[in-house]
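Hi P.,

Sorry for the delay on this. The queue was packed all week, but I finally got your sequence through. Input first:
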Amino acid sequence: MPLARDMKPPKSFRAVGPSTALLLASAVAPAAAQTGRIQGTVVSAATQKPVSGARVTLTGTRFGTVTNDAGHYELLNLNAGPYAVRVQIIGYSAMTQTATLTTGQTLTLDFAMNESAVTLDEIVVTGTAAEVRKKEVGNSTSSISTRDIQIAPLVNSQDVLVGRAPGVTVLESSGQPGAGGTIKIRGVNTISQSMQPLIYVDGVRIANDVHNVGGNGGRQATNPLQDINVDDIDHVEIIKGAAATTLYGTEASAGVIQIFTKQGAPGAPVWNFEASGGATMAPRLGKNDPTHFYMQCGDTSLTYGISMTKATLGQRVYFVDPTCPSSGHWQQLGPSTSDALSVRGGNERVTYYVSGNYSSADGYLQTGNSKEGGFRGNFSFAPAGPLKLTLSTAYQRRDTRWVADGNNAAGFLLNVGRGAAGNFRGGIGNECAGVDATKVCFTNVHIFDAQNLSRSDHFTSGFTLNYDPTANLLNRFSVGWDYTDMSDGVVRPFGFFTTPKGSYYKGNTQHTKLSLDYAGSFNNHFGDAISSSFSWGAQLFRDQHHLTAVSTTTFAGPGDPTLESGAAITGLTDLPFAGTNAGFLVQELMGFN
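Then the structure:
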């Protein structure tokens, strides 16, 4: 007879009375005294080094934990009875040990795992309350393990997906600091819903739309996935394609990405500090460009273009840019630094994981830079055997200055690359005084006079209650709140080449997503060959979105442009939106052998 059916779950309790808090406190001590624990250490059989991040579970239940950096694990508040303890992590063969726990006993089960190229029993979390083996899920899923993330040279959370999950494509941006890409799972598979996959962080759904930043000047975008510190990620699960709608509703037609961040573990505090640095450099554009391409400056023997004016159509017109940097090329070395500090620990009932991060990056073009920082706190509380409470909260702020990009009149590559057809002719003051009158004078350095700015504040918080009165009956209820405040500004000073009288743009976008999610599962066996998992659940999501924007132009003279100093309002936008999406789920999963 399978052990799962004989297994006794942690003991439940019930408090009745006017003061639930007092009765809860008095009920904890007796319950703890009647339960035992299973603990141990997981190491590599080949090296005897600790295996961190390994998942330790009680077979047939959802009760489990992960090993800490020392390879240690503890399973607490267990009733007396027989148990099968299973350890698994990608890269090693899964192992199971059986033992019988007596009342008040501390049982030690150590594991020495053998390395393996693949594993067939990977555990995944879907929209139901039960964790199941990946091969038993009817939906197409992919997983990115803790080990995959630890050994990869990742800059941000978006990089976690690149090349690590079949069918997942990340369309990168131009590479400016702070820029994000577009994520597609199995291409375009919907004509009525968003092309972006849904994103869940520790069971809380966050806003998933790509945000265009820097106004019309920046022509860049950010992805909300970037607001998750990559050092906080434990593992990632991806449900692909339109099949995800059976579990997450029609909004999941583009797929679902589930991010699971690191959690605390019983034991002494474990601190981790990471610091990294680097630099970015792009192919040179300038007189020292070894390809002698026409995107150059300062060398009249090489810099020429084809005139597009009617009077000299098709003739070669030499041009020169006296504002070319002394290095002979526009690119510069863009240094970057990143620091992250975290601590995790806890005891039998309370565990915690707290982290903070800060990073700064300069672009390979002058004025381009991005700074971001934030914190995360994950806390769990197990007041009694069948009940577990989890609180997760995170905040991330990003400040970025963008170099004008894309197909706009003040774009860097558009002007430097067009040669004689560029927009920044003539210079300011005496900048073109030394240029031969037979040549066209360009001063592309003034592209950097424009300020294309963006700032974002992203706050996510979620509360999850797990109540499993028996080993077969599982319940999960989650409340999530995701709030994003994004502001964008474009300032072109008085005398700017494309807008001689100057211009000012200010936009603000606020998005709030409230989510309520309940899921339950009942697992059962019929004989030794047939298994059943019946699941049910309901979801409700409330989105509130508000965009306000204003732009002005025609300033009196030089100085810092402001909204009030403009003589003409050229644009005014006020677009509020609110919507509610709700649904329910009923699923029966049958297994044979």
